[in-house]
């Protein structure tokens, strides 16, 4: 029997309960008729033009996205606006859109579990446990199968995640031995202190800003100030491993009934990366 959209949504919300979402977040069904059948689902990080194109091309009746389409309050979705145009395209194609954002960040397993698994971490636990259930929470802490120098670990992270123009950056002693690692899918500089308190050797996250990262590293100069080395990856790349996890939720709930595809289209906004091979300031000019 064909699953209905309502049944697929129920399976997703059992795995990623909306009650876990932050109060500011926008999770749940954006468009779609709960009574309509779902035969194919496309899972992606971002509900953008490219992934909507893909959903239409593959004939998906549901797009499951991590990031919300309509995070801020809106009063309309006119088709001549970028987000309104996507809603209209989905409706015309008979495709629903469901977004699981911070609900999937906090769930167990959730976004950071998928990132930890991609890096091969073992014995994981939450970096910032949920206030009512410490098995849940943001981020994960785990142990590498074998210790490795920080420079090698940064290359390991780059190899484990999809390639982006942003690439992977590391801040720390290249020879420092890394054994315990904290990860946080998405923008995680608000958890720098949590990673430091956990005493891990390295912290992997996305969108690290100059000042918070610099202030974190400066703590190493005070007595007892050993701090985790930092690995900064592209936001999209840090959350893309979750797509296969979420696809597995639907496959397990509807074996042989619902076809689930994971989008491989890179929706990271950065398209060009470059590294200068000369000093930032010409000594001859000073």
Core attributes:
286 residues, alpha/beta, Udp-n-acetylmuramoylalanyl-d-glutamate--2,6- Diaminopimelate Ligase, Chain: A, domain 1, 2 domains, six-stranded mixed β-sheet, five-stranded mixed β-sheet, 10 helices
- Placed side by side, the strands forming the largest sheet appear as 7-8-10-11-12-9
Q: Class by helix and strand content?
A: alpha/beta
Span between N and C termini? 75 Å
Q: Kindly give the count of domains.
A: 2
CATH architecture of the largest domain: 3-Layer(aba) Sandwich
Strand composition percent: 15-25%
Low-confidence stretches are none
Question: Total number of β-strand segments?
Answer: 13
Shape: globular
The total count of helices amounts to 10
CATH topology of the largest domain: Udp-n-acetylmuramoylalanyl-d-glutamate--2,6- Diaminopimelate Ligase, Chain: A, domain 1
Highest CATH level, the class of the largest domain: Alpha Beta
Summed over residues and divided by their number, the pLDDT gives a mean of 94
What is the radius of gyration?
Answer: 20 Å
Subunit structure: Homohexamer.
Keywords: Metal-binding
Family: Belongs to the GTP cyclohydrolase I type 2/NIF3 family.
Protein name: GTP cyclohydrolase 1 type 2 homolog
């Amino acid at each position: 029997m064909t699953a209905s959209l309502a049944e697929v949504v129920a399976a997703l919300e059992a795995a990623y309960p909306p009650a876990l979402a932050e109060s500011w977040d926008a999770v749940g069904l954006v468009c779609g008729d709960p009574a309509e059948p779902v035969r194919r689902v496309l899972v992606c990080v971002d509900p953008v033009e490219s992934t909507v194109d893909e959903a239409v091309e593959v004939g998906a009746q549901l797009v499951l996205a991590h990031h919300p389409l309509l995070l801020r309050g809106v009063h309309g979705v006119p088709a001549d606006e970028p987000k309104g145009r996507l809603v209209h395209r989905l409706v015309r194609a008979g495709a629903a859109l469901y977004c699981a954002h911070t609900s999937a960040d906090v769930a167990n397993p959730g976004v950071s579990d998928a990132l930890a698994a991609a890096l091969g971490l073992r014995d994981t636990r939450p970096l910032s446990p949920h206030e009512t259930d410490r098995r849940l929470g943001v981020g994960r802490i785990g142990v590498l199968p074998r210790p490795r120098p920080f420079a090698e670990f940064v290359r390991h992270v780059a190899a484990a995640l999809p390639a982006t123009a942003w690439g992977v950056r590391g801040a720390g002693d290249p020879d420092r031995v890394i054994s315990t690692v904290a990860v946080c899918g998405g923008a995680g500089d608000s958890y720098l202190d949590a990673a430091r308190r956990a005493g891990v050797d390295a912290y992997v996250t996305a969108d690290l800003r100059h000042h918070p990262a610099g202030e974190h590293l400066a703590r190493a100069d005070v007595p007892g100030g050993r701090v985790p080395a930092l690995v900064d990856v592209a936001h999209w790349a840090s959350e893309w491993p979750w797509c296969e996890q979420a696809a597995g939720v639907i496959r397990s709930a509807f074996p042989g009934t619902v076809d689930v595809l994971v989008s491989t289209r890179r929706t990271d906004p950065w398209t060009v990366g470059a590294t200068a091979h000369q000093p930032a300031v010409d000594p001859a000019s000073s």
